[in-house]
Amino acid sequence: MNATSTTHTRNPNAREVVVTGIGLALPGVATYGDLLGPLPGEGGFDPATGLIGRELRHKDRASRLTLRAAEFALHDAGLTDADDTFTGSTAVVVSTNLGNADSVCEATDTIATAGVMGLSPLALPQTSSNVIAGWVAIRYRLRGPNLSVCNGAPSGLDAVAWARNLIIAGRAEAAVVVGVEPAGDVVTRVLGQQSTDAAVAVVLEPADAAASRGARPRATITGYARARNLAAALVGAGATEEGPVGLWLADEAEAAGTGASHLLAARRRIDLESQLGPLSGALGVLQCAAAAAYLEGGTRQRSGHGRRPPPRRDGRPAADPAAGPSPIHAGTRTTPMITTSVTIEELRTLIAGVLETEPEEVTDDAHFAHELDIDSLLMLEISTRVESAFGVPENAVSASGATTLAELHAFLTSQLTPEPPTSPLIRPRPVSDPAVRLFLLHHAGGSHLLYRGWAEHFPEDWELCFLEAPGRGTLQALPLIDDCDRLVDYFHAAIAPLLDRPFGFFGHSMGALIAYQLTRRLLRQGEPLPTWLGVSAYGAPRGDADSSPHLMADDELRAWLRSGDGSPPQLLDNDDVWRKFAPAFRSDFKLVDTWTPPRSPEPLPVPLTAFTGLHDNMIDENRLVAWRRLTTDFRGLERYDGGHFYLMDHQQRIAAAIMAAMRSAAP
User: Fold this and answer.
1) Phi/psi at 602 (5° precision)
2) pLDDT for residue 186
3) Can you tell me the distance from the alpha carbon of 189 to that of 401, in angstroms, rounded to the nearest whole number?
């Protein structure tokens, strides 16, 4: 490109491309919302612990940073939640100017001193100019184009534009864009100063594709232009005289005297390099992440960083524990154990000692035989040591049938203690002396993950308590409960000590039924009642049942869920994934189908609000309005755009509605 030309991409008829995931491998920055300042300066990604692991062996620092940032971004986008995620064409575009400079310099030094025969075959791939993008494609089996951009300061924005163009042109169905620059002696010598150890990744998808899988768009990628004159670049990118740019992510001096009039009169200015240090090729992608945080309202957005999800058995990263039980083959129960507890870390250390490897190599889901190469003799040694260390009866480990560390720990925990291994209560943000407690109950086949991220939208003196049904998530080792009264008993025992201050219930779908029955239980027993009750996507109980999903054949049940937009396609369209989750679905649907409503229920003396998605095919709006006869204080029906899981796209609005309802209902 010559110095006087202007290039831009701005086609109003082009397919809209959105950001659906963001991942940071940036020390001192915990979330991408932190990029809006002030920077916390601590926490976030820790290179000392985050850049190790089997999948990172024999890779240069830039590749390790990139793989971590890409992992966090894909996880944040929800693209690692199912085994069939990457069936289409996904591109990888990496922006870096100095990424593998250390590898190249090391190779040339080796050739100078020892000749080409001195080169390591494991290190030689690192000298390729496209190795970083290639590692991401290989690691996540991405079968689209992969390329590197090394254009100096504009490199990161060029990479985002290239990725968008690949999607618009139909060359890729999605793209992972990474900006990375490592710190190191070689980079420091080239720059003349210490570089920033930084990697940031964003996932781009067509807006319609993201919507079809229920992904949350963070920002839309639109105009792009480069020109000698900054004002011309802004106009070329689509900026108009209608109003100033809302956020300016550049050096103040660069903006001065450009002749761009009030377009540059940004409401907010942030110079990322002045806060983080030299970023070079990572800058433009990091600016994209900061802009997404700004467009989301400047909240402290959570993104994958620091603590990574455990890898799958196939080597790909996994999302947070999904809604559904893991297939643990418990075998025959032996005599009672002597020990009262065993932690998964204790087991991990013990097995690593037998294998003569590092504990982090023994991941929760690594298959004993296929991935850790544990044969019958090694398993015998492990069994002997477990029996000796924890008082486990002879052959108990073999009888468990466990094939992974997670399965073995779940089995031992269920056998070691007569009580449930964990409480159904999950408090994402514990508060020592909360002003209000809000109990949240999940849907059929689901888990507490439905409410992931909700705590951020409530005041600091509100304590959110997720109630997890047995047989999934943190309680996956416990048997499922398919009876409404028994599940209410189970939850009631857990929450009874916590009703010493104003509290509320909010339940979605099956969770609404459980919240209603919990309230009736408290009323019947003369215990404190909730200040407010919220029921979502579930009609007022009545005597007749519309259907009995728990009795449907597999194909029929999956088709029914699919027609009602009741579950993500990744779960319904993959046989292996479905087999894992089907028991929880059937158990929960049996609970709902077999519950008998009271004939003449006494209206609850509790304010009640109903919630629904405008396009929910699974529940008629009249059924939701019918809740008015079951309360003395019906607060109306809240409607939101979306289907059965509308609430995933409206967390902040729903949180505001809940807070307003509880405050107005407070005595």
Assistant:
1) -75, 130
2) 76
3) 55
The whole-number pLDDT of residue 553 equals 82
Q: Are strands 174-181 and 90-95 parallel, antiparallel or unpaired?
A: parallel
Counting every residue written for the chain, the total comes to: 667
Distance CA 664, CA 644 (A): 27
| Alpha carbons 449 and 580: distance in angstroms, whole number | 17
CB atoms under 10 Å from CB of 524, counted, come to 9
Q: Which two tokens stand for residue 603?
A: 């209206």
The fraction of the chain above a pLDDT of 90, given in percent, is 25
CB atoms within 10 A of CB 65: 32
Query: Model's pTM, two decimal places?
Result: 0.46
DSSP secondary structure string for all residues of 603-645? PEEEEEEEEEETT-SSS-HHHHHGGGGGEEEEEEEEEESSSTT
Report the alpha-carbon distance of residue 350 to residue 357 in Å, rounded. 10
The single-letter code of the amino acid at 336 is: P
- pLDDT value of position 567: 62
Residues 6+ apart with CB under 8 A from 49: none
Note the pLDDT of residue 418. 45
Q: Are 125 and 256 in contact (CB under 8 A)?
A: no
With both helix axes pointing from N to C terminus, report the angle between 484-495 and 510-524 in degrees, rounded to the nearest 10.
70
- Within 13 A of 129's CA, how many CA atoms are on the CB side? 5
Q: Among 173, 181, 167, which Cα is nearest to 284's?
A: 181
Q: Locate 490 and state its tokens.
A: 């189970």
- Nearest-5° Cα angle at 346, 427 to 447: 30
The Cα 267–Cα 261 span in angstroms is: 14
Which contiguous run of DSSP H or E holds residue 174?
strand 174-181
**Before 420, cis peptide (omega within 30)?**
no
Nearest Cα neighbor of 452 from 319, 543, 286, 550 is 319
Angstrom distance (rounded) from CA 71 to CA 318: 9
b or e along 211-228 (b: 16 or more beta carbons within 10 Å of the residue's beta carbon)? bebbbbbbbebebbbbbe
DSSP class of 404 = S
DSSP per position, 17-66: EEEEEEEEE-BT--SGGGGGS----SSB--HHHHT-SGGGTT--HHHHHH
C-alpha angle 448-619-631 in degrees, rounded to nearest 5: 80
Do the bridges between strand 503-508 and strand 436-441 make them parallel or antiparallel, or are there none, so unpaired?
parallel
State both tokens at 606.
Answer: 């509790």
> Hunting for tokens 């203690």 — which residue is that?
417
Bridge partner list, 634: 608
> Which segments of the chain have a pLDDT < 50?
1-13, 82-85, 298-340, 417-421
Write out the two tokens for 61. 């620092």
* Contact of 603 with 630, CB cutoff 8 Å: yes
- Residue 643 to residue 626: CA distance in whole angstroms: 20
CB atoms closer than 10 angstroms to residue 388: 10
Q: Beta partners for 175?
A: 91, 204
CA distance 416 to 418: 7
Residues 6+ apart with CB under 8 A from 402: 328, 329, 368, 408, 410, 411
